[in-house]
């Protein structure tokens, strides 16, 4: 009897402690506050919103648009013990990402950890701060300027590829622009330009089987990411590790890491032979990214090989897939709007003259204002990164209620950019929206294809330069005619904004 009494007392005591523990208290507080926020989706008793389980990427794209279209600027979603809050209003998004308060990414980014490690995209805290400080000079104006010749060279290669065998017929441009953007980022841009072609993953190397394998592996690992997202039980690491997805992840990682290791090894081999020049540049702290990392390892020991690789993996992925998607949709939009395409062509000819051999310089791009507006408008309609995510480290007050600390934010850039409150006729391609006089009074967070705040895109200027160089080369040589249009695309919900069947256009030689 005494033992039974002791056991009951112990259980009651334990229950009392558990119910009063901060973790439990915080959970209930969080849940109560989240449930007070608006919601547009049907909830199942106990398990919450599981309406996304098992649906395909295409269905997920359509459903996400339906959910966000009907939702106010803030809406909640609960999956078991996890709470998500979706945002599509600029005021609320500014509160979430505009300051240093909520710097931590959502747990969803951890799905990428085996690939990207804790590189700039996924890291947090002091590690992120140090890396961001270290890498920012690699995107300084003087460094970017040097890449223009690499961009021009790769555009020429793209143009030749189209001219020999892909003229006057529907051509899916995705593999071509993907080649182009991968070659520019990995072929040269990570290291000092004007070094010998063989010094680091030369452009030739970038157009070989290895680069095709790399792109396929990126595509497979993106599929794994989506499938994992759509099967919440695989969010638990040991369950994921026992699933068939882990096998695909392992095989993809082998290819991805082999590729980036090769690039680093190649560059490291030749690094010493350029010591003199590099020392020169180091003094001014303006080294391209990979050189800067290798230099930090050799000279200061502040980074090791694994850490170099996580940054190279991060920049290769962020730097090639995003730009490729922007090139894809901008090409389609210009093909669909022949009058605007002609005006852009005239602007390019006005700046560069009719001689095709005249390569654009950094200064030339600054004069191409209409081209700039077209790219911005394409990034509004088709933001390559359609959703970003954060973890709230403290409460956020909104007019819809309190978003508590400890929840996952889903920030829907795609839906923000098509929010009719800020963008009249949101589905219409209209570059004049980005004329300075038309931007007056617009909320600064109504348009953020490169995100905003302290964790914004470090490569945005690089990307804009590369994209402008691409259209200078392509539009001087070809007229773009439409095959796919916004209505024929089957979009998918993915890490990147992709079209299921690619995007086709017709390239016609200009006379
Ligand atoms: C059109 C092209 C691009 C778009 C639309 C884009 C968009 C974005 C967005 C939305 C983010 C925030 C991601 C998040 O918070 O989860 C981001 C971050 C980042 N981007 Fe880009 N990006 C582009 C090109 C590039 C390029 C060319 C590079 C590198 C050369 C790059 C490197 C990065 C990195 C390293 C981060 C993480 C920054 C940090 O957390 O400190 N991006 N980008």
- Which sequence of strands runs across the widest sheet? 1-2-7-4
Largest sheet: 4 strands, mixed
Poorly predicted spans: 192-204, 273-279
Number of strands: 11
| Overall spatial form | globular
Bound molecules: protoporphyrin IX containing FE
Please report the number of helical segments.
21
User: How much beta, percentage-wise?
Assistant: 5-15%
Distance between the termini: 101 Å
Assign a percent range to the helix content. Answer: 55-70%
Radius of gyration: 25 Å
Global mean pLDDT: 88
Category by helix and strand content: alpha+beta
Would you write up a description of this structure?
- This protein has 511 residues and is of the alpha+beta class.
- Helix content is 55%, strand content 9%.
- The chain contains 21 helices and 11 strands.
- It has helices spanning 2-20, 22-36, 57-70, 90-97, 113-116, 125-135, 141-163, 174-189, 203-206, 209-230, 237-242, 244-271, 275-283, 289-300, 305-336, 338-352, 362-366, 369-381, 413-416, 436-439, 460-477, and strands at 74-79, 82-87, 170-172, 387-391, 396-398, 401-403, 408-412, 478-482, 491-492, 498-499, 504-509.
- The strands form 4 sheets. It has a 4-stranded mixed beta sheet.
- Strand 9 (491-492) and strand 10 (498-499) form a beta hairpin.
- Helix 10 crosses helix 12 (244-271) and helix 15 packs across helix 18 (369-381).
- It is globular.
- The N and C termini lie far apart (101 Å).
- Residues 192-204 and 273-279 have low confidence and may be disordered.
- The structure holds protoporphyrin IX containing FE.
- Protoporphyrin IX containing FE is lined by residues 120-121, 132, 185, 314-315, 318-319, 322-323, 326, 384-385, 388, 449-451, 455, 457-459, 462-463.
- Residues 120-121, 132, 185, 314-315, 318-319, 322-323, 326, 384-385, 388, 449-451, 455, 457-459, 462-463 line the site of protoporphyrin IX containing FE.
């Amino acid at each position: 009897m005494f033992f039974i009494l002791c056991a009951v007392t112990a259980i009651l005591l334990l229950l009392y402690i558990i119910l009063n523990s901060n973790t439990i208290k915080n959970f209930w507080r969080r849940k109560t506050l989240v449930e007070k926020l608006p919601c547009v989706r049907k909830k199942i008793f106990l398990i919450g919103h599981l309406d996304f389980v098992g649906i395909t990427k295409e269905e997920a794209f359509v459903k996400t648009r339906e959910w966000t279209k009907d939702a106010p600027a803030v809406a909640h979603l609960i999956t078991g013990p996890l709470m998500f809050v979706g945002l599509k209003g600029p005021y609320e998004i500014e509160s979430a990402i505009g300051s240093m308060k909520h710097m931590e990414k959502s747990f969803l980014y951890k799905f990428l950890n085996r690939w990207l490690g804790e590189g700039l995209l996924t890291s947090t805290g002091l590690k992120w701060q140090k890396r961001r400080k270290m890498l920012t000079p690699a995107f300084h104006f003087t460094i970017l300027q040097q890449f223009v010749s690499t961009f021009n060279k790769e555009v020429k290669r793209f143009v030749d590829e189209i001219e020999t065998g892909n003229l006057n017929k529907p051509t899916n441009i995705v593999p071509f622009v993907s080649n182009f953007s991968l070659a520019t980022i990995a072929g040269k841009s990570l290291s000092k330009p004007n070094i010998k072609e063989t010094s680091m993953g030369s452009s030739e190397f970038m157009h070989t089987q290895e680069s095709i394998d790399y792109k396929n592996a990126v595509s497979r690992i993106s599929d794994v990411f989506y499938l994992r997202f759509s099967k919440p039980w695989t969010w638990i690491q040991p369950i994921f590790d026992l699933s068939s997805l882990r096998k695909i992840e392992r095989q993809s990682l082998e290819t991805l890491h082999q590729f980036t290791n090769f690039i680093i090894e190649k560059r490291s081999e030749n690094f010493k032979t350029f010591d003199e020049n590099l020392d020169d540049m180091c003094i001014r702290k303006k080294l391209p990214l990979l050189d800067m990392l290798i230099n930090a390892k050799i000279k200061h020991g502040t980074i090791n090989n694994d850490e170099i690789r996580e940054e190279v993996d991060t920049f290769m992925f962020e730097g090639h897939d995003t730009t490729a998607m922007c090139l894809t949709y901008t090409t389609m939009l210009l093909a669909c709007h022949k009058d605007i395409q002609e005006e852009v062509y005239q602007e390019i000819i006005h700046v560069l003259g009719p001689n095709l051999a005249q390569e654009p310089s950094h200064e030339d791009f600054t004069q191409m204002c209409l081209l700039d507006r077209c790219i911005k408008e394409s990034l509004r309609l088709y933001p390559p990164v359609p959703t970003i995510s954060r973890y709230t480290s403290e409460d956020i007050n909104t007019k819809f209620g309190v978003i508590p600390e400890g929840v996952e934010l889903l920030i829907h850039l795609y839906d923000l950019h098509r929010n009719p409150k800020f963008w009249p006729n949101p589905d219409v391609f209209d570059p004049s929206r980005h004329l300075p006089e038309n931007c007056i009074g617009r909320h600064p967070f109504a348009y953020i294809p490169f995100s905003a705040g302290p964790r914004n895109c470090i490569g945005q200027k690089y990307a804009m330069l590369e994209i402008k160089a691409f259209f200078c080369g392509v539009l001087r040589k070809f007229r773009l005619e439409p095959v796919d249009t916004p209505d024929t695309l089957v979009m998918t919900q993915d890490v990147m904004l992709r079209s299921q069947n690619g995007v086709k256009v017709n390239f016609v030689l200009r006379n």
